[in-house]
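User: I'm writing a tutorial on reading structure tokens. Could you give me a worked example: one chain, its sequence, then its tokens, then a sentence or two explaining what the tokens reveal?
Assistant: Sure. Here is the example chain.
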Amino acid sequence: MTDTPALIRHGQRAIDLGIVVRDAEAALGFYRDVLGLVDEGSMPMPVGAGGTMHRLRCGDSLIKLVAFDENPEAKAPRGGIPGASGYRYFTIHVVNIDEIAEACRSAGVRVVVEPVEIRPGVRIALINDPDGNTVEFVESA
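And here are its predicted structure tokens:
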């Protein structure tokens, strides 16, 4: 730790996360329809090769699903969290982890790690979105 003040002076108490997706309808089916994130609308992608940004509210955060007019050539490497360096997963804190896992299973979504207690009072589940990105759900007692 250092006594230097933080450079970042927050403008909001959350982050926005951008996820480039290969199939917008499949991604919306997962994040909006299965998980129930609130759809805040779509807009043309302001940078890049043209496309659409779909904005979904997750608590105070915003999940931005970006579908370009032409899919990027490169895909994120497979292998889950330990499969590569860089952004590999993000976490959503919940109070109904079993219900989420069941809804995902019922919708044919891959639950990579079923709800499990990792330390007293803390349970996690890992679920893959349609592009294979890992979403971690954490439930604390």
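What the tokens reveal: The longest strand covers residues 111-119. The radius of gyration is 16 Å.
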